Amino acid sequence: MTHLLATTQGDPTFLQEFYFFLCVVVFLFGLFLGSFYNVCIYRIPLGLSVNRPRRSFCFRCGSQIRWYDNLPILSYLLLRGQCRQCGARFSPRYLAVELLTGIVFLAVFVGTNPPGSEAFQVATLWYLAFASLLIVGTFTDIDHWIIPDGVTIWGTFAALAASIPIGLIDQWPLLTEFGPFPLLREYWDEDLFTIMLALSQGPQMLDLPPEAHRWWDAPANAAIGAAFGFSLLYSIGVIGKVLFRKDAMGFGDVKLFALIGAALGMFGSLLTLFLACLLGVIGGGVGMILSAVRENPSSVLQESPALLEESPGRPLEEVPPAVRRLEEIARSAPRPRSVHHLPFGPWIALGALIVLILHQPLQQLVAQWLF
User: Fold this and answer.
1) pTM over 0.70
2) 132-168 residue pLDDT tens
């Protein structure tokens, strides 16, 4: 990996020659990780280990899923979404999460390394991890109205840590696009409107020379963005509570915005909030209909919390104790109450992904609107 990064940073033609190959690799990598994210989505909210048992299994018959039956997309289609041993049906969302992860990975790679790029952005590796956190947080929020601290709090620390090598290695770090540095340093003596206009366009849109970048710009932007994102949504929650006399914002969403601020900076946080509100309004009608008729979410894994049953050739007492214990925990876990709206977290995550993938066109639109 070190040799690959050195090659892509030093040879402007490398990324262009192998661009399609890298896109295929990133997509396939996303498919395989999507299978693991299904495990995280199911187990983490229930307080279960994501690696014990290490292999997925069917809750109906307790059979462990063989490796060739656990290949992303392909195995589900070949088995028609059923357990090979007992025929139990698995939710199609298992397939959807795998496919979604592959598509998101590909979009993030292209968004951070557009066709014609002269060098590979090291920040791409972090932003793939950032997209992964958003995917896991989205589906746990849909299923349980919970965004795990492992996604938000530890994700924020990971973003702050990743910003240091990004600032040191990348020739023009993507995180500097979201400000406030180096633009604040370059436009310090200008009026407030000019500063805001410069922040909306980003350094590359204003053709600042590479020398304007300092290695500490990316870490500074990440730290400022995390504080800004947290404060932004926390303030909205406080104002909403005063106006409506009830909690208007979940604290998980507030912590999620700290992660988004650390990954996308101040300006990225503002764009994410705008898009999340817009998407929430547009998709809210559909979400209300779906949530009204859905009493309990379907599990996305082979470990769906179906009742253990005696199946031909496998009495209940022969089911492994570990499988029984996991099933008991899953069965006793509180289910989401029937609601008439969807949580805000998925819209936040979708808005953040749009900002990450389409940041340059969005900056152009904002600049045109300000003019």
Assistant:
1) yes
2) 999 999 999 988 888 999 999 999 999 999 999 998 8
Is residue 134 within 8 A of residue 105, CB to CB? The reply is no
Sign for the pseudo-dihedral over CA of 88, 92, 93, 98? positive
Dihedral, CA of residue 138, residue 140, residue 144 and residue 148, to nearest 10: -100
- pLDDT (tens digit, 9 = 90+) per residue, 40-58? 888 888 877 777 766 676 6
Give residue 371's pLDDT band: very low, low, confident or very high (50, 70, 90): low
Helix then strand then coil, % of the chain, to nearest 5: 65, 0, 30
d(CA 38, CA 70): 12
Q: Could you count the other beta carbons within 10 Å of the beta carbon of residue 309? A: 13
Burial 189-199 (b: 16+ CB within 10 A, else e): eeeeeebbbbb
Distance CA 175, CA 335 (A): 39
In the chain, alpha helices (H): 2-10, 14-17, 19-43, 74-78, 93-112, 123-144, 149-169, 183-186, 192-201, 217-244, 251-293, 321-332, 345-357, 359-370
- Joined together, the tokens standing for residue 347 give 């819209």
Coil, strand or helix: which one is 226? helix
Which H or E run includes 169?
Answer: helix 149-169
Distances (CA, A) of 15 to 23, 81, 121, 187, 285: 10, 38, 10, 33, 43
The single-letter code of the amino acid at 231 is: S
How is the chain split into domains, by residue range? 20-118+298-334, 120-297+335-371
User: What amino acid occupies position 363?
Assistant: Q
Query: For residue 14, which amino acid is it?
Result: F
Distance of CA 19 to the CA centre of its chain: 24
CB of 140 closer than 8 Å to CB of 146: yes
Distance between alpha carbon 208 and the CA centroid of its chain, in Å?
Answer: 31
Sign of the alpha-carbon dihedral angle for 91, 93, 98, 103? positive
A 10 A CB-CB count for 365 gives 13
For residue 246, what are its two tokens?
């009830």
- Distance (Å, rounded) from C-alpha 192 to C-alpha 169? 32
Which residue(s) pair with 311 in the sheet? 314
